[in-house]
Amino acid sequence: MSSPTVIYLGVFFFAPFVIVLLYAFGMVGLLRQFQFFPTLEYFLEFFDSVAPSVFGRSLLMAFATTVLCLLLGYPMSYHIAVKSGRRKETLMLLVIIPFWVSFLLRTYALMTILDVNGIINVTLLSFGLISEPLNLMYNMQAVLLGMVYNYLPFMILPLYASMEKLDKSLLEAAGSLGAGPTRSFLHVTLPLTRSGVGAGSILVFVPAVGEFIIPQLLGGTESFMIGNLIWTLFLKARDLWFGSAVSIILIALVMLMVALYMKYITRGEEMTI
Amino acid sequence: MRKIGEKILKGYSLAVYVFLYAPILIMVVFSFNDSRLLAVWRGFSLRWYETLIGDPTVWRAFYNSIWVAGLTTIVSIVLGTMMAFVMIRHSFRGKSLLDSSLYFPVVIPEITEALSLLLFYVFTGIPLGGLTVAVGHIAFAISYATIVIRARLVGFDRSVEEAAKSLGANEFRTFLHVTLPIILPGVMAGGLLAFTVSYDDFIKTAFTAGPGFQTLPLRIYAMASRGGVSPQLNALATVTLVVSLALAVVRLRLSKA
Question: What is the pLDDT of residue A271?
C-alpha cells in the first residue's frame, strides 16, 4: 500500500539527486540522447574557482550564527525553563510563533528596519544624529543579523527541552555542598544541558550553511554564500555541470553534519517542530 | 545577589523577545500608514490594501499559491496516510531505510533539492510551470504529512476495527466509518502542515516555476529584491503573514484535539 508513495519519492526526490550526480561527473545531453564519459574535471574546477572561498565564508557565517544564537538563546531558555505553569507556556509560545512565519517574510520585515528609508535611518535623521542615511544593508553584518534573527528559535527549542528535564534538586544539592552559582552552573547545569547545546547547534549550523534567502536579500558581494553561488550557477550562468559538482560537495558536507544531528536528536523530538 | 541575577536574566530575555517581534510588528503597523514614506507615521489608512486589491498580478499570484498548495495538500494527505499506515502496521525488509529516508527532505538544504528537481525537469524535457512546482512541493510535503499522521496513529486501538468487521462491515466500510473518523484530526493536521510548507515555499518554487508562473512568495521576493521596501509590499507581506498564522493556529488546535 505504500508503493505509490515510495514510487513518488523515488521519481521526484531520489532520482533527481542521481541526475545531479551524473551531471557532476560529466553527463551531457538529455533523456532522449545522452552521453556519459565519466570525468572529474568539474570537481577539479571547484578548487580553481571562487567556490572554496565561498564555502569557507559560508561555514564561517554558519559558525558565527550558531555561536550568537547560543549566546542569545541559552540564558533565555534558562529563564523560561525555571518558570512554571501558564507563564512558562506563554513564554514558550512566544518563541514558537516566529517559526510560523516564513524566512522570506521575516527577512523582509528586517529590511523595513535596515533599509535606507527604514525605521533606524528615518529616526536617526529626524533627531539630527546623522546627516546622511547609514548603509545598514548589503553587507556581512546585515546577513549575520538576519541569520541570527531567523534561526534563533531553532536554538531555543532544543535548549529549552534539555533544561526542562534538568532536575532542580541537583542544583540545590550542589548549593548545599557549598558550590556558588558559577560553580554549580559550570559543573551541573552546563554538562546536563550539553545535549540541548549540541542539538541546537546542529539545527542552526546545518541549514545556515546552505542558506539562500537571507544573503540574497540582505547581503552584497562580500557576503556571497554557497546558496547564492548555486543560484547563480543554475539560474544565471546555466552551468549545470559545475553547479552540480558544487551541489554534490555541499550535500556531502551536510550528510556529514546530519550524521552528527542523528546522534544528538531523537526522532520523536523533531515532530514537535 | 540572586535577585540581581534574576533581574538581569529577565531584562536579557525581554530584549531577545523585542528583537524577535519588533521587525514583524513594525512591518505590520506601517502597512496601515497613510503615507508613501515608509517609517514616518501619518495616520491610519487602508490605502495600501486598496492598491493590493486593484493589482491583478497580486491576485494571480494569490490564486497560484492557493491551487498549488491545495493540490499539494490533497496528494500528500493520500500518499502520506498510506505511508503512515504501512509504517505503523507492517514490518518488512528495508523499513528502517524507508523510515530514515522520510527525514531526508526535512534535513537536506532546500536549495539542493530545488536544483536537483530543476535538473530532472531539464533532463526529461518537462516544461516548467505551475504543475512542476506542485510536483516538487508534494515531494517534500509527503514527508511532513507522513510524520504528523504517523504520530497520530501510534496510540490507535485496533480492536474497534475488529469489532466493526465482526459486525459484518467490509474493509472499505470499516475504514470509512471507523478508522477515518478516529485518525481525521491527525490527517487534517498533516494536511495543514503540507499546505503551509507549500504556501510558504520560496526556493523550490523559484527553481521550478519557469518564467511565467508566480506565487505569493515569488511576487514578494521580486518586489523586495527590485525596489526594496515599500508600504504596498508591507501590506502584501502582512496579508501573507496573517494566512500563515491562521493556518498554524488551526494546526495547534487540531494537535490538541
Answer: 37
Residue B206, pLDDT score: 95
B16 lies in some domain: no
Higher pLDDT, A35 or B124: B124
Residues of chain B with Cβ-Cβ distance to A104 below 8 Å are 200, 202, 217, 220-221
Looking at CA atoms only, how far is residue B166 from chain A in angstroms?
23
Inform me whether the pLDDT recorded for A264 exceeds 80: no
- Whether residues B115 and A4 touch (CB distance < 8 A) is answered with no
Which amino acid type is present at position A77? S
What confidence score (pLDDT) does residue A55 get?
96
> Stretch B84-93: mean pLDDT, rounded?
83
**CATH number (domain holding residue B186):** 1.10.3720.10
Any idea which residue has 570525468 for its cell?
A: A39
Contact A184, A174 (CB under 8 A): yes
The domain tally of chain B equals 1
Residues A42, A244: Cα–Cα separation, whole Å: 9
CA atoms within 13 Å, Cβ hemisphere of A11: 9
Average pLDDT over all residues of chain A = 87
Residue B14 belongs to some domain of the structure: no
Chain centroid, CA A239 distance in Å: 26
Residues 168-187 of A with CB under 8 A from B: 181
Assigned domain for B33 exists: no
- With respect to residue B30, please indicate whether it lies within any of the assigned structural domains: no
The range of the structural domain enclosing residue B68 comes to 48-256
> A240-264 vs A51-81: helix axis angle to the nearest 10?
30
Residue type, A15: A
Q: Kindly report the backbone phi and psi dihedral angles of residue A131, in degrees, each rounded to the nearest multiple of 5, phi listed first.
A: -105, -20
Does the pLDDT of residue A272 top 60, yes or no? no
> Is the CB of A9 inside 8 Å of chain B's CB atoms?
yes
String of DSSP letters for A134-179: ---SSSHHHHHHHHHHHHHHHHHHHHHHHHHTS-HHHHHHHHHTT-
pTM of the model: 0.89
Query: What three-state secondary structure class fits B54?
Result: coil
Amino acid letter at A43? F
- Smallest Cα distance from A9 to chain B, Å: 6
Give the model's confidence band at A230: pLDDT under 50 very low, under 70 low, under 90 confident, else very high. very high
Look at residues A145, A116, A141 and name the one whose alpha carbon lies nearest to residue A220. Answer: A141
SS3 at position A128: coil
Cα A5 from Cα B79, distance rounded (Å):
5
Closest by CA position to B58, among listed B185, B222, B176: B222
Q: Does A117 touch chain B (CB under 8 A)?
A: yes
Most confident of A164-168, A189-193, B239-243, B251-255: B239-243
> Residue A132 CB: number of other CB atoms within 10 A?
8
pLDDT for position B12? 92
Q: What is the CATH T-level fold of the domain A47-270, as seen in this structure?
A: MetI-like fold (1.10.3720)
What is the interface pTM, i.e. ipTM, of the complex? 0.90
